[in-house]
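In full, the data:

***
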Amino acid sequence: MSFQAYLDNIEDKTGLTPRQLIALAQEKGFDAPGTKAGVIVDWLKADYDLGRGHAMAIVHIVKNGDKVGGRDAGEGEKLWLDGKATKPA
């Protein structure tokens, strides 16, 4: 399963786009550099019943934005964070 498919499944489960989840995490201060992944995972489990794998996908985008993979800047897959309905073909 691709990383993007994980995000699409999270949207199906929560009713929120990845960008909306990022905004909620930012409101809670979870985007701060010292925030541990477990804090975000616990929040997503409690509020949205997300399992660890899906929660860790959200941790990644909260901490790293819309890029996944690749060692150098500009490499890797660019993720679509604005919801499946608006995703370009």
Notes: The first strand starts at residue 67 and ends at 68. The chain has four helices and two strands. Residues 3-67 form one domain. Residues 1 and 11 are 15 Å apart (CA to CA).
